[in-house]
Amino acid sequence: LLLCQKTLNKGIVMEVINILVIDDEEGIRESIKRALRNFKMSLSYIESDYSFAIDTAESAEEGLEMMKAKRYDILLLDNQLPGMHGVDLLKMMHESQSDILTIMITAFASIETAVSATKNGAYDFLTKPFTPQELKDAILKASKHFILTNSAKKFEEEKKKIRFQFISILSHELKSPI
Question: β-strand 12-22 against 49-57: which pairing, if any?
Fold first, then answer.
């Protein structure tokens, strides 16, 4: 059930976590791409390594179209966008039960915005200006959450499958006793 893509890199499985950055400032979009370009993640309890593929959009409307065309795992979303604001996009996504992890990035953080964003599914906040290390820390935190959540879903599906097989075998044995 992992949503991220898998690639083979010299015999090592490298999974790709897809990130969409929606921000109207080109400098922010490009600095995020540059900071995460060669960024890799490895978790001791998961046998895969992870890299990040970053796409960018300059408006909520453009980002929405991109999310319809491609599945993203993490969204870095500015709130102060031309046209539709980030929190409005977050509300739309929340209503459609989107499972994308959203990190709000904004220079104009307020309690009202934070409460509204959190109620509508924001996972974390990153205040502008941020350093490359702060960005990487936020991405690591969200990625770990994403990976563990999807692993739990995968184990739950496996549990259901095993339970079904057990019940099938049990019912067969009860129908034809020795």
Answer: parallel
Provide φ and ψ at 30, rounded to 5°. -70, -35
User: How far apart (Å, rounded) are the C-alpha atoms in residues 86 and 109?
Assistant: 12
d(CA 2, CA 75): 16
- Is residue 106 within 8 A of residue 122, CB to CB? The reply is no
Which tokens is 5 given? 């893509």
How far is it, in rounded angstroms, from Cα 76 to Cα 59? 12
Query: In whole angstroms, how far apart are CA 55 and each of 17, 72, 74, 75, 162?
Result: 11, 9, 11, 10, 39
pLDDT digits (tens, 9 = 90+) for 130-172: 999 999 999 999 988 888 887 777 777 777 788 777 777 777 6
Burial grade of 25 (CB within 10 A; 0-12, 13-18, 19 or more): middle
